[in-house]
Specification:
- By secondary structure, the chain is an alpha/beta fold.
- The strands form four sheets. The protein has a seven-stranded parallel beta sheet with strand order 2-3-4-7-8-9-10.
- 37% of the residues lie in helices and 10% in strands.
- It is globular, with a radius of gyration of 25 Å.
- It has two domains: 362 residues, Glycoside hydrolase, family 3, N-terminal domain (TIM Barrel, Alpha-Beta Barrel); 152 residues, Rossmann fold (3-Layer(aba) Sandwich), CATH 3.40.50.
Length: 620
């Protein structure tokens, strides 16, 4: 961005409490710094829950729009947040989306914070109407806005704050932390020029074999998911970002990945009312501004066999009618097999609009999707007035957010807000509060002190290519155990089991063994969470008298595949905060207080958990 670009009301999009608020926020860590004071005085606020009341600009703009321009407002393509030179083919493609197709917004994916902000500004400058920018921010802005690893040296190039997976909040049971996470996410999002967060996940994960939701959920208890989901929602909405509950009306009870196939949730309406729907109802009551649809069939709501995304009964009858939701309805990604396999891409777009969707997200063909929406009107599938209702909501949100007057962000503000030390500290507190010691029958946690058992072996179990798996955990644990050794295991590429013998031999000379697993549930086989050699490794360690402490950074249900593990700690994701928290807990530097927000049948019920205090330093 050019030096000297003036500050705007949307530069950060935070509330006036940016300095005065206690706890999380710039003011908590930097209120005394001249730079923070400068930011606070130059940034005005977007207060309260994001509403979509129609203003004069919205009415005038809608009246002037052609049918095709209206259709384009509903189509939001997917873009990366990477560096794109102006003379490149990719930039020419983006210019076409904005100048020729006149899309209404984008979903912005991975990239470094400054590159995302710069690209968003460039697109906003091109567009005749202000653009709405959205992103998947389930675990904060760091869920998408982080720099890459520099591969030769494995250097983490940093980025936005990345919180643990949502289920860590479920384990902590702390709605105050949930609110603060939403608030920090909103502040960082608006600093990048992003207005809509696709989160929180409100799915009740009551199926341990779910290959796509799992620890993205807040848990399996509807009341707890509702309470914590509302707290995240308020944190986002009260700080100028639209929260989007997903995946309506519930993606938790399925064993099919909707990215790859069409799932069915074949339960009764009474069960839906009791389990799946309460978090969504609570979020609507709390004023959530967005809802994302589920690409899955729910026969109890629509017997026609179409997914919820394409069902008027679900979107109009249930969500708009029964629940009274007035915000934006987003489809889940329209390039997913779960929605296009029945009718094809163009017909699916028409059906989504007819069903009541306001935004067609991530279609395979942007221009073709706009054409399809126009065709739907001309074919009598829906009226132009129906289209106007969605366009009016979209334009009204742009007006409400102040984008009509100020649509650019200051690149200088990114470093002040994104990755702020107080946000990083919040991530630490969430990670520590969620640590859940499911079992510890041999009293192995915390580990014995380095004076009595100095030789610790960590075995990092990871999918191939996950450079972030292990470094933060190992380096933090090594601070307490200087003689620590670390080995790597990749079960998905070591199916011959040859690596098991090598690791067992390495364990023979260790006083303590820690197995840290970053394996996640797979869409190919939800139950095969520990393929091939990992169960064999755990069994072998137990049989040799080297019972390991297993730390699950990936799939929390891993215990079902390694029931021989005597000590099992769940850390809810492989973020840096989660890795550091787990290592410090093993060293006795952090208390363990979390409780399972899900059951691990048949081994552990919901609510299970063993508490551990901070280890009292020994007196020489």
């Amino acid at each position: 961005m050019r030096p000297g670009l003036r500050w705007t009301a949307v530069a950060l999009g935070v509330t006036a409490a940016i300095v005065s608020a206690a706890g999380v926020g710039i003011g908590a860590a930097r209120a005394a710094t001249p730079r923070a004071q400068q930011v606070a005085t130059r940034v005005s606020s977007v207060r309260g829950p994001v509403r979509t009341a129609v203003g004069p600009w919205t009415a005038r703009t809608l009246k002037r729009m052609t049918l095709r321009q209206k259709a384009a407002q509903l189509v939001w393509p997917w873009i990366l947040g990477d560096y794109v030179p102006e003379g490149s083919m990719e930039w020419a493609r983006l210019m076409q989306l904005v100048l020729d197709d006149e899309v209404g917004g984008f979903i912005v994916s991975v990239g470094s914070p400054t590159e995302i902000a710069a690209k968003v500004n460039a697109l906003q400058r091109l567009s005749k109407l202000p653009l709405l920018m959205s992103a998947d921010y389930e675990t904060g802005v760091g869920f998408r806005a982080r720099g890459p690893y520099f591969v030769p040296n494995e250097i983490d190039l940093g980025g936005a704050t990345n919180f643990p997976l949502q289920m860590a909040l479920g384990a902590s049971r702390d709605s105050a932390l949930a609110y603060q996470m939403g608030r920090a996410t909103a502040r960082e999002a608006r600093a990048l020029g992003v207005h809509i967060a696709f989160g929180p996940v409100l799915d009740v994960n009551n199926n341990p074999n779910n290959p796509v939701i799992a620890a993205r959920s807040l848990g399996e208890d509807p009341a707890s998911v509702a309470r914590l989901g509302v707290a995240i929602t308020r944190g986002l909405e009260e700080n100028g970002v639209v929260a989007t509950g997903k995946h309506f009306p519930g993606h938790g009870d399925t064993e099919t990945n909707s990215h790859l196939a069409l799932p069915t949730v074949a339960v009764s309406r009474a069960r839906l009312d009791a389990v799946e729907l309460p978090p969504f109802r609570a979020a609507v009551k709390a004023g959530i501004g967005g809802m994302m649809t589920f690409h899955g069939i729910l026969p109890a709501l629509d017997s026609s066999g179409v997914p919820a995304t394409l069902s008027s009964s679900v979107l109009q009858g249930l969500l708009r009618g029964e629940m009274g939701f007035q915000g934006l309805i987003f489809t889940d990604a329209m390039d997913m097999v779960g929605v296009v396999q029945q009718f094809g891409a163009r017909e699916s777009v028409k059906r989504a609009v007819a069903a009541g969707a306001d935004v067609v997200l991530m279609p395979k063909d942007t221009k073709g999707s706009i054409d399809a929406i126009v065709e739907g009107v001309k074919e009598g599938r829906y009226t132009e007035a129906r289209l106007d209702a969605s366009v009016r909501r979209i334009l009204a949100l742009k007006e409400r957010l102040g984008l009509v007057r100020h649509r650019l962000v200051s690149i200088d503000s990114v470093r002040v807000v994104v990755g702020d030390s107080s946000h990083v500290d919040l991530a630490r507190r969430i990670a520590e509060g969620g640590l859940t010691l499911v079992r510890d029958s041999l009293m192995q946690v915390p580990l014995a002190s380095a004076r009595t058992a100095p030789r610790v072996l960590t075995i990092i179990v990871t999918p191939r290519g996950d450079l972030a798996a292990g470094p933060a955990f190992t380096s933090t644990l090594r601070a307490s155990y200087p003689a620590l050794r670390s080995e790597l295991m990749m079960p998905n590429v070591e199916r011959d089991g040859g690596n098991v013998a090598r690791l067992l031999a390495a364990a023979d000379s260790a006083d303590q063994v820690v197995v840290a697993s970053y394996m996640i549930q797979t869409s190919e086989s939800a139950t095969a969470t520990a393929p091939g050699s990992l169960p064999a490794l755990v069994r072998g360690l137990v049989s040799r008298g080297k019972a390991p402490v297993v730390v699950a950074f990936g799939n929390p249900y891993l215990l079902r595949e390694i029931p021989d593990a005597r000590a099992y700690l769940v850390a809810w994701g492989g973020s840096t905060a989660s890795q550091v928290a787990a290592a410090r807990a093993l060293a006795g530097l952090v208390a363990i207080t979390g409780r399972l927000p899900v059951s691990i049948p048949p081994l552990a019920p919901i609510g299970a958990g063993v508490s551990r205090d901070i280890r009292t330093p020994s007196i020489p």
